[in-house]
Amino acid sequence: MLPTIAASPPQLPLTQHHDDGSIIAITTTTSPRPPAAAPLVPPEPPSIKEGSKAMSIQQYHTNASLSDAWRTINIDALTEDSSANFDVSTLAPPQPETTEDEVRQISGQVRQLLRGGDAEGALRGALDTPVYNGTDAAKDAHLQTIIEVLQSIKASDMSPLLKSIYGSPGGSEALDVLMKYMHVYHSAPSREEPQLTS
């Protein structure tokens, strides 16, 4: 195999004139210019095949709807206290169903106590028998009974009466029932609110 011989750079002849008329030939060596650098072109991003269309990564993420994909994981299912992990009906014991006839009987007993002047007994009797499970008519009838008792109590007697109920056995639970019925009453539209003091 023959050795490789590097090509020598080209030599350019030059002449120099002196005062005596002699001419001297001078040779110079020129170095080749380095090749020009190629312009930098950014590489094309890899493409993702989707069906028969080629899409760039930028186009793929731009066209994908983030609103459709951000909620793919049910976060509530990973929370221990979430209602998705247990039956919320077990938080309260099952309530017996109260019929409309039973509500009318309770209302008659409450009105009888009112006629006898026992407003505290009438209110306590209505609050001790709340209608949690029953028809809408039964619930509304019992609500009207409680409102009727409250309207019959004087404003000056309301605070002492409620304090007396609170100090009796089961009084805090009875007042909790009263607050629930007040919330239902004031949440209902187009009702004439009675003048009550708390």
UniProtKB/TrEMBL annotation:
GO CC terms of this entry: Arp2/3 protein complex
Keywords from the named record: Cytoplasm, Cytoskeleton
KW Cytoplasm (keyword) present: yes
Cytoplasm among keywords: yes
Compartment(s): Cytoplasm, Cytoskeleton
One Pfam family linked to the record: P16-Arc
A single GO BP: regulation of actin filament polymerization
Alphabetized PANTHER family for the sequence: ARP2/3 COMPLEX 16 KD SUBUNIT P16-ARC
Family: Belongs to the ARPC5 family.
Primary role: Functions as component of the Arp2/3 complex which is involved in regulation of actin polymerization and together with an activating nucleation-promoting factor (NPF) mediates the formation of branched actin networks. Arp2/3 complex plays a critical role in the control of cell morphogenesis via the modulation of cell polarity development.
Protein name, as recorded: Actin-related protein 2/3 complex subunit 5
